[in-house]
Amino acid sequence: MMPDPFQVFCLYYLGLTPEGEVRFQNANQVAKRFNWTPEMLMEYLHRHRLHPDLVLNTDFPLSRYQVDLQTAAQYEDSERLHARALGIYEAFTGVAGRKRRDWLKEIKEE
């Protein structure tokens, strides 16, 4: 069965497993869960507008959400974690690809 983009987003970007555990996995580990190669995973992410290049080149605060989810995992159950993750996914898919980061500006500001 083909996973939906939300499931892949949870595993690859948030480290949230279907069982409600939060543990980050690399592309090889995520791909293995679906019986894919890492190349197949990257193609899937690209096709669903979830490719790492898109994440890197938008100003979506993914790392903030990753930390929030890790913290919440200490006291929330699986159902609440997945509801929280759905909100993160919807926020990401609402902005991804529209607002590109200005790397030169960020470097100058540093």
Describe this structure in words.
With 110 residues, the protein is mainly α. It is 62% helix and 0% strand. The protein has 7 helices and no strands. The chain has helices at residues 5-14, 27-33, 38-47, 52-56, 62-72, 78-95, 103-109. Helix 1 (5-14) crosses helix 6 (78-95) and helix 2 (27-33) crosses helix 3 (38-47). It is globular, with a radius of gyration of 14 Å. 20% of the residues are buried. The model has no long low-confidence stretch (mean pLDDT 88).
Short overview:
The chain has 7 helices and no strands.
> Based on the structure, what is the oligomeric state of the protein chains?
single chain
Helix/strand/pairing class, anyone? mainly alpha
Task: Write down the overall mean pLDDT.
Answer: 88
Helical content (DSSP H or I, runs of 4+)? 55-70%
Identify low-pLDDT runs: none
- Quick one: biggest sheet? none
Radius of gyration: 14 Å
Write down how many β-strands occur, each being a DSSP E stretch of 2 or more residues: 0
Number of helices: 7
Strand content: under 5%
Distance between the first and last residues' Cα: 46 Å
Any chance you could write out the topology, listing elements then pairs?
Elements: H1 5-14, H2 27-33, H3 38-47, H4 52-56, H5 62-72, H6 78-95, H7 103-109
